[in-house]
């Protein structure tokens, strides 16, 4: 039987909602929807959706490291944006982080998030040993 490891972050939302930033069971790591939420309902990166995406991906990378994984183990991402017209900015940030890793990815437009300042939320799934070695 595999042990469950819950990874937390400083987010106030985790206690309020009752979730973990990431959960590892065996070789699988699931990272919750991650945003650029800052103090008092603000967003790190302000109105720059690309900066918000980079902050969310930085937080995802930190959660993966804490779970014993890294970005090279990511096999799938799900990206949620409040304005699909701004997809190129988010896509550029995703490409910066994943480059040759190229996980399966989806992007969806949603009405909004828990705090109106947030423009993007990203989830990730990783499998240890599923690592891509760039050519």
TrEMBL record:
It comes from the Bacteria. Pfam families: Ribonuc_L-PSP (PF01042). InterPro entries: RutC-like_sf, YjgF/YER057c/UK114. This is RidA family protein.
């Amino acid at each position: 039987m595999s042990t469950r490891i819950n990874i937390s972050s400083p987010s106030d939302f985790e206690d309020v909602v009752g979730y973990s930033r990431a959960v590892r069971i065996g070789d699988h790591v699931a990272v919750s929807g991650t945003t650029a939420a800052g103090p008092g309902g603000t967003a790190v990166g302000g109105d720059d959706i690309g900066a918000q995406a980079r902050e969310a991906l930085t937080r995802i990378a930190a959660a993966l490291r804490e779970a014993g994984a890294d970005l090279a183990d990511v096999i799938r991402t799900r990206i949620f944006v409040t304005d699909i017209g701004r997809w190129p900015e988010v896509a550029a940030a995703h490409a910066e982080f994943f480059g040759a890793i190229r996980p399966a990815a989806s992007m969806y437009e949603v009405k909004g998030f828990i705090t109106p300042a947030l423009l993007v939320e990203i989830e990730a799934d990783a499998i240890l040993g599923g690592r891509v070695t760039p050519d």
